[in-house]
Amino acid sequence: MEIGMSNSGGDFHIELATVSDLPEILELVSSEYGPPYNGKVYWNWRYFDNPVAKVLIYVARAANGKIAAMQAVSGYSIHINGKMCSAHMLTGAMTSPHFRRRGLFRSLVQRIIQDLSNQGALMLYTFPNNLSVQGFRRFLGWKENESLSLYVRPYSESRAEGGT
């Protein structure tokens, strides 16, 4: 499924990525992150062949066909009050430095919301990083629902203190 959008920065089309897009996706990932996040094995496992979630990668393509931005969404089944529900988590948002400030992040997330709403999904959540949190605060009706505590336990005290 494809949706077109135009803005002052050019024409873009949003569509679902396929495995054949992996080399170009890895090129985009490499422009933002390094190992291990830009490895083919990692991406196949995490996104295309994920063993626990159905993952879709939405991409915004420039008029020349090049992937300008992407947003992955992982679908999970969860139990709420004894009822099986559909929940989705946004992960892996990236926009090429050459295509920033053109509304691509917003358009990708809006498209995902539209598609998931049509499928009856219960909720969409994310754990934004320092770049994307500003977008979620500015648009799309998102709100911070919880601050999560992180508990960490070292394997042993000697390792925690730098010993062997």
What does this structure look like?
The protein is an alpha+beta fold. It has a single domain (3-160), classed as Aminopeptidase. Helix content is 28%, strand content 32%. The protein has 5 helices and 6 strands. The protein has helices at residues 22-32, 40-48, 104-118, 132-138, 157-160, and strands at 3-7, 10-16, 54-62, 67-80, 83-95, 123-126. It has a 6-stranded mixed beta sheet, with helices on both faces. It is globular, with a radius of gyration of 18 Å. The chain starts with a strand and ends with a helix.
Which percent bin holds the helix content?
25-40%
Calculate the mean pLDDT score and round it: 82
The span between the termini is 53 Å
Return Rg in Å.
18 Å
The appropriate CATH architecture is 3-Layer(aba) Sandwich
- Give the count of helical stretches: 5
Largest sheet: 6 strands, mixed
Helix and strand sequence: EEHHEEEHEHH
The tally of structural domains comes to 1
CATH superfamily, by name, is: Gcn5-related N-acetyltransferase (GNAT)
Hey, roughly how much beta strand do the residues contain? 25-35%
Shape: globular
Class computed from helices, strands and strand pairing: alpha+beta
- CATH level 1 name: Alpha Beta
| CATH fold naming | Aminopeptidase
Unreliable residue runs: 1-9
Major sheet strand order: 1-2-3-4-5-6
Strand segment tally: 6
